[in-house]
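Handout, section 4.2: multi-component inputs.
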Amino acid sequence: MARGLTIGQVAERTGLAVSAIRYYEEEGLVAPTRNDAGQRRFERADIRRLSFVMIAQQLGASIAEIRAQLAALPRSRTPSAADWRQMAENYRTDLNRRIAQLEKLRDDLDGCIGCGCLSLERCALYNPQDRAAGLGPGPRYLLGNSSADLTAPETSGRASSTKGR
Amino acid sequence: MARGLTIGQVAERTGLAVSAIRYYEEEGLVAPTRNDAGQRRFERADIRRLSFVMIAQQLGASIAEIRAQLAALPRSRTPSAADWRQMAENYRTDLNRRIAQLEKLRDDLDGCIGCGCLSLERCALYNPQDRAAGLGPGPRYLLGNSSADLTAPETSGRASSTKGR
DNA sequence: GCTTGCCCTCAAGTTTACTTGAGGCGGTAG
DNA sequence: CTACCGCCTCAAGTAAACTTGAGGGCAAGC
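Output:
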């Protein structure tokens, strides 16, 4: 259990910039303690947390979403094996959904664009279930809102247009 | 054939905001013609282009990368079946790489984090080939730079730190 | 004739995710 | 004792990807 890692050590081990790690603390993704001099001290488990952050970001998750995911882990005690397993299971579901999405996209590309069918109205990629153009907003179904619902729907106001990603 | 679609019609069919489409034109992702009154007129093929843009974005591609991908299509004539097939094939490679990446991640999650192994130094997720910590920058290998190299490496200047995504 | 709707441009604002810079503390190596 | 290194805070800057707003044009409907 060591005396804790400095921010510089964590940066080196994760490949993150020191400033990024401080930012993540501000965003509540890690919560290091402080030593007498007020310097941050991290635990090993924090490296894992940060690795998870980096990976989740690669998959397109926003910081808010990642925070929600990480909320499943206890911040008071060091996460146990069971904690991580729970996390991993949640995450696995998301990953599987995403993989399935990509596979579908790949197959659609193969079958539709690949074959050169240019009749967009009934194209499998653009409009798989043959809902006539004008009914739905577009190829949205392909972009199924996987985990965008993690950050409270926000019932009020602006149902503008493209607020995805 | 047909007198072309207005920007509003394209917006409705793609689900994009009108402003976004104008922005994409500025960025060179579509190149509509203009009618006598100076209004944009789009072709059917542009809807396909824009659908592709949306999908590629979901996969994490930047506009510059998408522009590079789309460059494979002719902007002078309407893309032929062969053009799209070529595109799709390039794209398929990227997709497959990404899918493989996600699958690996999922399996690593199952096998490593899922099992609760807390020894980060030799964790498969964190450090699969058992290169001791301190050698590499972190879990970077998992984040393999798939298609980040589309936008000319830019040899000069700031090799700062975390400039991914 | 005037209002309404869709279109136009151009400048400025917004969000997310960070980085950079100024100004300062505390420990250790020469 | 002075340098230097790594750490600190806080404010401001940045890039990407759009949106919003001001000010204006053209055509159809009442």
